[in-house]
Design goal:
By secondary structure, the protein is of the alpha/beta class. It has 13 helices and 16 strands. The protein has helices at residues 72-85, 88-104, 130-142, 175-182, 205-208, 225-235, 239-245, 263-271, 280-285, 293-299, 315-330, 338-345, 415-423; strands at 2-10, 13-23, 26-31, 39-46, 49-54, 107-114, 145-152, 191-197, 217-221, 253-257, 275-278, 303-305, 367-370, 394-399, 402-406, 409-410. Strand 14 and strand 15 (402-406) form a beta hairpin. Bound molecules: zinc ion.
């Protein structure tokens, strides 16, 4: 297959008239300054975007939970109501529709932080991984890759209170229970099995060491000040220090949010090359605060981005958020370059896809064409398109060499209709 991109984002800058040859789902040639030949992609062609932090079912809360006061904790009660209603038969169509929405926005890999494992009373389904398999099938049918970050979730508080109410669906009893269940999950074409620890609230410290060395391994970290206070009270240290003590930090680990950190935490995360996934639109929506993204990057942490609660599914907005929210917090501009913002939006490495996220020979052939003549992007400098474009400006998406979005439409199904049906 041969594509011709008028402009393509290669090596952190815009190249012109780029011939792209694809074979076996990989780029076999990438040649700027070529004559037009092959399927023409207009606008600016970006690498596939990576949504490194998703809870697919949270999409059901969009437009329903933002108007009132309250906090992360009151929002969580509403989220638990949705979590209590779903079963594999209803989660599959919801997740397929949500992943379809992601595909339309140029997302080619999703990291699904999955803890909705069991029946509402905590008993396993006949296949204890039925919910995980529903998510994998949903991503496949939506045409995107999935890293299933199967989540260890055992307690409801840092001091080890048992799971209660809907949380019983999340638990596997102990580390061995989780290891036994997840050992039946397998990598496949476009599917990678990763691990997650929900947080230091949900995983007792004695089990953290059992996760050390796994990759990719994700964990919610210091999203809330209350978590930090509880961790200090119980363990006498910050959540980051607790992870460090148990050997959990490292390049295969991604800390999600990392909002309320000490200077020492930033040094530990950066020094160990632990990744950090920022979720600016969710952190905004839940009034969580602004994490120290620039300081973490300077300390050595690779940054990725996730839409998390799916109040918005738009990696351009997340990428702008990492820069613009930091401007508000510091009253200074220019923390991240456009190249750094787009690199964070295409950080497939955080999901274990080291061979994706760049338009380069040998890499997975993901392409995302973004219109430069929409009402939002008309007149924008292509090099600054990340400051202007939204997911709605994505016209064409190729995942592993397969066309998934063509002229703004998903090639597999009507995503808006699927969302309406799943959310009715
Ligand atoms: Zn999350």
């Amino acid at each position: 297959m041969r594509y011709f991109a008028e402009r393509a984002w290669i090596g952190g800058r815009v190249e012109h008239d780029v011939a792209l040859e694809v074979d076996g789902g990989r780029f076999t040639a990438v040649t700027p300054g070529s004559a037009p030949d092959g399927t023409r992609l207009r606008g600016l062609v970006l690498p596939g975007l990576a949504n490194a932090h998703s809870h697919a079912f949270h999409r059901a809360l969009r437009g329903r939970t933002h108007g009132d006061r309250g906090s992360f904790w009151t929002w969580r009660e509403l989220m638990y109501e949705v979590a209590g209603r779903l079963d594999p038969d209803s989660y599959y169509p919801l997740a397929r529709a949500v992943y379809g929405e992601m595909a339309l926005a140029g997302i080619t890999s999703v990291g699904e932080f999955h803890y909705l494992h069991h029946n509402p009373d905590g008993t396993p389904y006949a296949d204890p991984n039925e919910m995980g398999h529903a998510l994998i099938r949903a991503a496949r049918d939506a045409g995107i890759r999935i890293t299933l970050l199967d989540t260890l979730y055992l307690t409801s508080s840092v001091d080890g209170k048992p799971l209660e109410g809907v949380q019983r669906r999340f638990g596997d009893g102990d580390l061995d229970g989780w290891l036994t269940r997840t050992s039946a999950l397998r990598d496949g074409e476009g599917v990678r099995i990763g691990a997650a620890a929900h947080s230091v609230r949900a995983v007792p410290a004695r089990f953290l060491g059992g996760l050390a060395g796994r990759a990719p391994l994700h964990i919610h970290l210091s999203e809330q000040r209350a978590e930090n206070e509880q961790c200090q009270a119980v363990h006498g240290c910050t959540p980051t220090e607790l992870l460090h003590r148990h050997g959990v930090l490292g390049p295969g680990t991604t800390a999600v949010h990392a909002t309320h950190l000490t200077d020492g935490d930033i040094k530990l995360l950066g020094g160990s090359r632990t990744g950090v996934c920022l979720c600016p639109t969710t952190e905004r929506d839940l009034a969580d605060g602004v994490g120290p993204g620039r300081a973490l990057a300077d300390a050595g942490s690779p940054l990725s981005l996730g839409s998390d609660s799916h109040a918005v599914i738009d990696l351009f907005e997340e990428a702008r958020g990492m820069e613009l929210d930091e401007r508000l917090a510091t009253e200074r501009r220019g923390h991240f370059s456009a190249a750094e913002m787009l690199a964070a939006a295409a950080a497939h490495t955080a999901l274990g896809w080291d061979d994706a996220g760049e338009i380069a020979v040998g890499k997975r052939a993901d392409l995302v064409a973004v219109s430069l003549d929409s009402v939002r992007t008309a007149g924008a400098d292509p090099a600054g398109a990340v400051f202007a474009a939204t997911g709605a400006d994505v016209t064409d998406v190729v995942v592993d060499g397969r066309v998934v979005v063509d002229g703004g439409r998903h090639t597999g199904f009507d995503v808006a209709a699927a969302l309406r049906e799943a959310l009715s």
